[in-house]
Amino acid sequence: MLFKRKNLLNFYILSFFASTTLMAAPASIQIDENENNFIVVKSKEDSDVSGQERRDTDFLSARFERILKVAKELIGIKYKLGGSSPKTGFDCSGFVSYVFNEGAGIQLPRSSREMRSVGKPVDLKSLKPGDLIFFKINTSHVGIYIGDNKFVHAPSTGRSVSVDNLMSSFFQNRIVGARRIINEQ
Could you say which of 63, 116, 141, 180 is catalytic? Predict the structure, then answer.
């Protein structure tokens, strides 16, 4: 009997908080009923997203997907100093330039140093797939962030285009910045 009363008390407490929340902020929520007759509470901000904003978001997502698809297809291509195509091989900036041009039609400068002035700076905690990550390796190095603390790049002579972890001790201590090339707005 005590168990049932405790559940009933929890139900009343939850109902009280839910009703006071709904009454306190009626302008910021929208209440609908779905096809199964369940009540659905949505924030007003979610409901106010226009069709154009959805299309813009879909367009950006498609661009990110194409960039990542091109980058991943090139994994295994040999490193070549000054290389900028799958036939000759890639150096780091040649790889990034090729991927952005093929995947999104974006022409980037040829050198990683020049790439550091394109787009807008991004905090490392805010990285998104498609962002460029810059490292202090030799003189300068660049790769493309692909999510989950991983990035794809053309590493160095004797290696091939590959995916590496940003949190590895080698790369973590050499990151000098990140840039977002594709605007979200």
Answer: 141
C-alpha neighbours within 13 Å on the C-beta side of residue 89:
13
Tell me the CA end-to-end span of the chain in Å, nearest whole number.
Answer: 57
CB 174 within 8 A of CB 135: yes
Give the three-class secondary structure for 1. coil
Q: Residue ranges per domain, the chain? A: 2-47, 51-180
Catalytic residue among 67, 68, 77, 92: 92
Whether residue 141 lies in the annotated active site? yes
Domain 51-180 = CATH 3.90.1720.10: yes
One digit per residue, the tens of pLDDT, for the chain of length 185 reads 444 555 555 545 445 444 544 444 444 445 455 454 444 444 444 444 455 445 545 555 778 889 999 999 999 999 999 999 999 999 999 999 999 999 999 999 999 999 999 999 999 999 999 999 999 987 789 999 999 999 999 999 999 999 999 999 999 999 999 999 987 54
In the residue annotation, 148 being an active-site residue is answered as no
Question: Residue 92 catalytic?
Answer: yes
Q: Are 91 and 139 in contact (CB under 8 A)?
A: no
Q: What is the 3-state secondary structure (H, E, C) of 30-94?
A: EEEECCCCCEEEEEHHHHCCCHHHHHHHHHHHHHHHHHHHHHHHCCCCEECCCCEECCCEECHHH
